[in-house]
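User: Okay, second chain of the day. Same drill as before: sequence in, structure tokens out.
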Amino acid sequence: MNEQLYSSGLLENAVNEFSKLPGIGKKTALRLALHLLKQEVAAVRQFGEAVIQLRNEAMYCKQCMNLSDSEICEICSNPRRDHSMICVVESIRDVMSVENTMQYHGVYHVLGGMISPMDGVGPSDLTIEELENRVRAGNISEIILALSATMEGDTTNFYIYRKLKDLPVKISTLARGVSIGDELEYADQVTLGRSIVNRQPFENIFNRNG
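Assistant: Same drill. Structure tokens below.
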């Protein structure tokens, strides 16, 4: 394939920067850059400032590690949420997926990934220790393991189960309405919602797998 020739170095630089984003190839990057050229300067400035502000000012909740505008996120600070129930997810996107089901009213814990030896990701790279500390601090009645039904998700589930199984907390997992191999963020809202409502004790699956 012939390399794209640009009549402007400014355009080429913009395309190169857009193409660094996940899922954005050079053709899409070019369309985005040309789209911005058609916009009013004020609109493009607002777009750029929003991205810079996100990077500079966004922080992670000290309790659940979710993205937040303050030290404690809106979910953790909401007195109407059930703070005795923690839903454990891989990423911020998964928090959004579960929230969209409108079937869950507890709080969250974001691991920041999943255990994957092939990718060099171990338990110490995740926020599992922080989760354990939250449980040991008391007032937690249930942990819901809401990780994707993949090999990495199951490995992480088993690791967390073994860390928490001797503590006075119920450990449950999503019902397998989410098919094996599915990423949580791509599950439809109805299926994911039912999987949360129909969750089951994790030891049932643990015992089934030996």
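Residues 72-208 form a domain with the Dna Topoisomerase Vi A Subunit; Chain: A, domain 2 fold (CATH 3.40.1360.10).

User: Thanks, on to the next one.
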